[in-house]
């Protein structure tokens, strides 16, 4: 099953502030693990269960992705993106 990935307004603003390399890493994660197996790749950050805010750290690119999974809608919402040195 492939999940549809959508961006919150904040995630769209955050994406615009990332470097090209980090944006590319986010897009690859969006097309790959976040669309294919979002409940397995990230760790729970706030809350618990499938509706929890999860975080996926892309260490090679220096960016973290905060997201929620909605299994009933088969959708992943990117909530925030954070680049770090």
Describe the structure.
This protein has 85 residues and is α+β, with helices and mostly antiparallel strands. The protein has four helices and five strands, in the order E-H-H-H-H-E-E-E-E. It is globular. A five-stranded mixed sheet has the order 1-5-4-3-2. The mean pLDDT is 95. The N and C termini lie far apart (34 Å).
Secondary-structure element pattern, one letter each: EHHHHEEEE
The major beta sheet can be summarized as: 5 strands, mixed
**Mean pLDDT, all residues:** 95
- The Cα radius of gyration reads 12 Å
Show unreliable segments.
none
Itemize the secondary structure elements and their pairings.
Blueprint lengths: L3 E4 L1 H8 L3 H12 L1 H4 L1 H4 L1 E4 L6 E6 L4 E8 L4 E9 L2
Parallel strand pairs: 1-5
Antiparallel strand pairs: 2-3, 3-4, 4-5
Quick structural overview:
By secondary structure, the chain is an alpha+beta fold.
List keywords for this structure.
85 residues, alpha+beta, 5-stranded mixed β-sheet, 4 helices, globular
């Amino acid at each position: 099953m492939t999940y549809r990935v959508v961006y919150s307004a904040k995630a769209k603003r955050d994406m615009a502030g990332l470097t090209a390399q980090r944006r590319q890493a986010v897009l690859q994660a969006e097309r790959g693990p976040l669309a294919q197996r979002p409940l397995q790749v990230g760790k729970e950050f706030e809350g618990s269960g499938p509706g929890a805010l999860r975080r996926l750290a892309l260490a090679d690119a220096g960016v973290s992705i905060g997201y929620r999974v909605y299994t009933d809608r088969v959708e992943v919402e990117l909530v925030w993106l954070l680049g770090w040195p």
